Amino acid sequence: MTDPSDEVASRGRRLRPLVLAQVASVLLVLVLFSLLVRNIMQGSSGGQFVSAIKRGEQPVAPAFDLPVIWNRPGVWPRRARPALADGRVELAELRGTPVVLNFWASWCIPCKDEAPLLAASAQAHRRAVAFLGLDIQDFSSDARRFLRRFGVPYSSVRETGDKTYRAYGLTGVPETYFIDSRGRVVAHAIGGVTRDGLERDVSLLGGKVQ
């Protein structure tokens, strides 16, 4: 005759893996849900940021602290150059200096088209405006090859994730943000810049042709 306690113990042993699997499934769902919520919130925040620019509200540019992959301080205002000293650039370090922030990638065709325009403008407004490239979704070797090919005269940083990309509400590359000396975005160019559009937006920063 089977001992009832043995049967209960046997049933418990059979159920334990099932219970553990269910708990693991629930935890996985919760983790995925939290990631989804975080991504939605970040995307929403970036979208609100871009909308604020369109409304002319001049929102504060989202902060970042990223490694330098192309150190070219020569065309930067002298007061901004110490930001490059530690091999990283924190946007807050550039407060007091107008900044043209260009998101780009080496595989981006419009980025190739606009590179000479940005280089010429950086030279024209040298020592008045800090042009800064922000390379995303790219290999560092390809990025440096691009920068050498186009003789980019200003510094560039690189992000391996998407935190800054999302914070700025990007829909692709290139996109360019014009940040005044207070750290507020006064203009935003989606897609490749044109010569006239670039100079118009730089003029909002008070940049003077040298």
Structural class: alpha/beta
The tally of beta strands, per DSSP, is: 7
Which percent bin holds the helix content? Answer: 40-55%
Residue share in β-strands: 15-25%
Written description of the protein model:
The protein is of the alpha/beta class. It has a domain of 139 residues: Glutaredoxin. 43% of the residues lie in helices and 18% in strands. Strands 2-1-5-4-3-6-7 form a 7-stranded mixed sheet, with helices on both faces. A hairpin with a 5-residue loop joins strand 6 and strand 7. The protein is globular and about 85 Å long. The N and C termini lie far apart (101 Å).
Keywords:
210 residues; alpha/beta; 7 strands
SSE layout and pairing:
Layout: H1 4-54, E1 65-70, E2 88-90, E3 99-104, H2 109-124, E4 130-136, H3 140-149, E5 156-159, H4 163-167, E6 175-179, E7 185-190, H5 195-203
Parallel strand pairs: 3-4, 4-5
Antiparallel strand pairs: 1-2, 1-5, 3-6, 6-7
Sum this structure up briefly.
The protein is of the alpha/beta class and 210 residues long.
